[in-house]
Amino acid sequence: MSESEVVAPPEPRPAPDPAPWGIRGAVLVTGLSFAIQVVVALILGGFAAAIITFMDPGLIRDEEEFRDLVVLVTVIPMALLYTIFTLAIIHVSVTRICGRPFAESLKLRIPTRAGLAGSLVLGAAMAAGFVALAGLFPPQEEIGGPLARLAETGLAGHLAWILLAVVMAPTVEEILFRGYAYLGVRQKLGPVRAGIAVSVVFLLLHLGETGFYIPALAGIGGMAVILILLMERSGNLTYCIACHLAYNGTLSMLSFIAGE
């Protein structure tokens, strides 16, 4: 066989980047998600306050009742719009801009029964640990943001809070933080620094609910770290969603039982 007849084997193609949006996309999408949450809250809150005042001007005299009513009628629409917008921009970034499959790029995979059960148990155990810590160090003053006030408005508010905390928040927050943001930042910073950065941002964005109450900060911060480790070890974002769901669900159940 002559040299001209020798055909060189094709060079192997490099493995595709699992998060081609990178740190730039992670920062941009996370910032847009937070900005739309603030804007929607201001618009809906102002609109609701104006309508309530027009319908019953006397309510404005009772500041606490007026505030609770505004929260009750605006939190769910705001959460729905925030969820839709956040998932939409992530979907466009992954599928349209980067041309990658949505679920696989974000590591949303079918879980095993054992893995799913372990994730649920882990989340419930972390919530129980937080409750025990809070029992040892109770807050010296009232803490909580709009979601906490929603839970305090009565049975309807508490059920709405459970819906937001158990169904919506774990899904959208895990897709945003441990999925899109972490995988994008990880390309540049590596797993350790990316995990720290995403966990710090996650904690800061919850300050409106936790304040500077140390047990609450420890609970949120500890959960953020555990979820990063779970994502890194399993490579399956579904386990993070399950763990987060069990954490919030356990807290919701315990608060409902305690009437707090």
Short recap of the structure:
The protein has helices at residues 22-55, 63-97, 102-105, 113-136, 146-151, 155-204, 207-210, 214-234, 237-258. With 260 residues, the protein is mainly α. The relative contact order is 0.14.
Characterise this structure.
The chain has 260 residues and is an all-alpha fold. It contains 9 helices and no strands. Helix 6 crosses helix 9. The longest helix is centred in the C-terminal third of the chain and has 50 residues. The radius of gyration is 22 Å and the shape is globular. 32% of the residues are buried.
- Helicity, in percent? over 70%
Q: Average pLDDT across residues?
A: 86
Which structural class best describes the helix and strand composition? Answer: mainly alpha
User: In this structure, how is the largest beta sheet organized?
Assistant: none
Q: Quickly count the helices.
A: 9
Query: Which radius of gyration do the C-alpha atoms yield?
Result: 22 Å
Uncertain residue ranges: 1-5, 11-16
Q: Tell me, briefly, the overall form.
A: globular
Note the gap between the termini.
Answer: 84 Å
**SSE pattern:** HHHHHHHHH
Could you tell me the strand content as a percent range?
Answer: under 5%
Number of strands: 0
